[in-house]
Amino acid sequence: MTRMTSQKWKEWERSVRTKAQSLLRSLELRQPAIPLRPLLDASRAEVIFRPLLVNGATAPCDTGFRIYCQCDSPQVDDWKRRLLDDDDLGRSLPPSVRFTLAHELVHTFFFDRDSSPPRNRLVPSTDQSLTQLERLCDRGAAELLLPADLLANDARACDLFSPDDIRGLATLYGVSLTTLLLRMKHADTLLDSGALLYLSTRDGQLAIEAAVIHTSLCRVLPNPRSRQPFAELRVAGVDFSVSLQQPERHSHATVPTSNRPLNFEARCRGLRSGRYLLTLKSSETPRGVN
Q: What dotted CATH number matches 6-145?
């Protein structure tokens, strides 16, 4: 078992980022959506679609790795065809499946590949370290599916405070809104102000699935927890849930700060199954926050 310090986790985080970027460069993948099969082949990973009790799992073998991906029996042949087809290479797989495969692929970064079969160099000893490992694999998966340079170029062509443009960007890369916001959260230069929030209905109330809040607003907009009830996101008495009362329209909110009021333009798009994408564009950066 491995007992990890915070410094060691930071080293692993840098290693994951470096390996993801190196893998993408070596394959010269320059167009979204990123094809999965070249990444898997380069990592000597065979994919097996089958019914599972979890989303995915990775196991070393003499030839490299076997990645198991949850798939209902009727879909096995179709998903296998999409991954193996030379004109598809996994681009058209559902976003959740693409993320699972990328997440499991990042797990292989923690193995010593000089051994046969590969030897795991990081075996978490606590629930906390297991959670940290899974978060690292989530971040690595987002790096693989949303390469920084490609995403930056495409983001410049979008209005990042337009819910429709954000949805279009996620579709272009074959990822979910949660994955896109996760990537943007750790690439702060993409968003020059304001915040993006992806909301879903849980137990009869709206909860925050994912959020990106620009660092200049950290003292004004508290960074929400994943699955935090949206009703708790109140800043200086302002309830942003008013923005959801008339989806598809713009609304405005004014947040008092210690220097002067900060104005937000709120834009909301109602999605299927009780989900919303809310953008908050600040008209100016609050003083003393940069």
A: 1.10.10
Beta strands in the chain (DSSP E): 45-50, 56-61, 64-70, 111-112, 119-120, 195-202, 205-213, 234-235, 238-239, 250-255, 262-270, 276-282
Q: Where are the domains of the chain?
A: 6-145, 154-282
Please say whether the beta carbons of 83 and 89 come within 8 A.
Answer: yes
- Report pLDDT digits (tens) over 213-249: 887 776 666 677 778 877 776 554 455 554 555 545 5
Write out pLDDT tens, residues 45-75: 999 999 999 999 999 999 999 999 999 999 9
Amino acid at residue number 120: N
- The C-alpha atoms of residue 219 and residue 221 are separated, in whole angstroms, by 6
Q: Could you tell me if 195 and 217 are in contact, meaning their C-beta atoms sit under 8 angstroms apart? A: yes
Judge contact between 110 and 122, C-beta under 8 A. yes
β-pairing verdict for 64-70 and 45-50: parallel
Evaluated on CA atoms 155, 189, 196, 240, the torsion sign reads: negative
CATH no. of 154-282: 3.30.450
Residue reference for tokens 């959740």: 96
Closest CA to 118 of 60, 63, 66: 60
